[in-house]
Amino acid sequence: MSGSAVSVTTMDSSLDEELEGLSAAGRRRRLRRIDKKEGSIVWIDGRRLISFGSNDYLGLSQHARMIAAASLSILDWGSGSTGSRLTTGNLCPHEELEAAIAAFKHTQSAVAFTSGYAANVGAIQALAGEEDLILSDSLNHASLIDGCRLSRATVRVYSHNDTGHVRDLLNDRSNFRRLLMITDGVFSMDGDLARLPDLADLADECDGWLMVDDAHGTGVYGESGSGTVEHFGLLGRVPIQMGTLSKACGSVGGFVAGSRSLVELLKNKARSFIYSTALPPAVVESARMSLEIIASSPSLRARLHHNVKRLRTGLNILAIDAAAGDSPIIPVIYGSEMAAISISKQLEEAGFWIPAIRPPTVPPGTSRLRITVSADHTDDQIDALLKVLGEIDKSVSSK
Ligand SMILES: Cc1ncc(COP(=O)(O)O)c(C=O)c1O
């Protein structure tokens, strides 16, 4: 046996041991292959399931106008962008998309990244360094946490949505150059909204910069659908608005919207922007189309909120303990990993697909179903889910 074969075997047995540890803890992840998809219906392992787990809140991922925009763009531009934005990859569609994002978010300017993850790690790393202080909500998304780590700033994590705690952590603010306050707009696994008005006041008071990750608010909240900043009447008061094109927008990509100076600085310093190939033009064109659809079709948002209300009201009637609120993300917490997996399996047997969410995505002991609602769902589908959830809940409580 050659030396390298021996080391591969050693590597694999070490990795297998780690994987077995994950399995034993109920934390091993497994990819499920979707063979076909039509709106909220997916086909997995030969079975037709109704999905209540995607982030396609407005059902735009298969919208005819999105498909047409992407198809036409591929004919004009081909499949790839061929380079980083700063080399050969800065195409007309990218600049048009950024202008559309800025208009949609009511900001001077915007910059697109290849994903929301890339936007967060790039923006935070570019804006904060060793001399700076970052305050970050304990339930912030992993991409924000990773951006904080990358920045090498002093990072203080405050208890979820606890603005009193934020204030406590600011007592030595003057020892730092910049202060960044970072929060999800809609918390991705809990579906509650950040206390943006209080955070904006605190940021003003302490000369801080508020950054809102509105991955799940964009297209869902606000009069024009621009997100939680608009929803809370804070347009002009949140200098760093991050968002994704991958959830309600039904495409892929991330962005930061704000002042011209902010965007110019990010284009110069965000490493995930500089050292990565630009988004493919077909994706860019579908994303731009999504903003057009969101702005011109308030009825889609109204349908989404109708569906959210129907499902939330039904859960209340069944006395199923789901977090209060009005967002399309509805967590039902079961506690252990095994319990959440078992409920998810029972739902699958009954024709519904809602993946179990476990640590490290959520804190230990809070494994859950993360039920998400889309404008694509029909009343009948929602009622059918409620019926099955009610039956499962009864059998869990009687054990
Ligand atoms: C709050 C939040 N921020 C950022 C991201 C990353 O966005 P993307 O999936 O576009 O990379 C996600 C995605 O799960 C998210 O939930």
Question: Which keywords apply here?
Answer:
399 residues; alpha/beta; Aspartate Aminotransferase, domain 2; Aspartate Aminotransferase, domain 1; 14 helices; binds pyridoxal-5'-phosphate
Quick recap:
With about 400 residues, the protein is of the alpha/beta class. It has helices spanning about 5-25, 65-75, 90-105, 115-125, 140-150, 165-170, 195-205, 230, 260-270, 270-275, 280-295, 300-315, 335-350, 380-395; strands spanning about 35-40, 40-45, 45-50, 110-115, 135, 155-160, 180-185, 210-215, 240-245, 255-260, 330-335, 350-355, 355, 365-370. The mean pLDDT is about 95.
Description:
This protein is of the alpha/beta class and 399 residues long. It has two domains: 235 residues, Type I PLP-dependent aspartate aminotransferase-like (Major domain) (Aspartate Aminotransferase, domain 2, 3-Layer(aba) Sandwich); 100 residues, Aspartate Aminotransferase, domain 1 (Alpha-Beta Complex). The protein has 14 helices and 14 strands. The strands form three sheets. Strands 4-10-9-8-7-5-6 form a seven-stranded mixed beta sheet, sandwiched between helices. It has a four-stranded mixed beta sheet with strand order 1-2-3-12. A three-stranded antiparallel beta sheet has the order 11-14-13, covered by helices on one side. α2 packs antiparallel against α11 and α3 packs parallel to α11. The protein starts with a helix and ends with a helix. The model has no long low-confidence stretch (mean pLDDT 96). It binds pyridoxal-5'-phosphate (PLP).
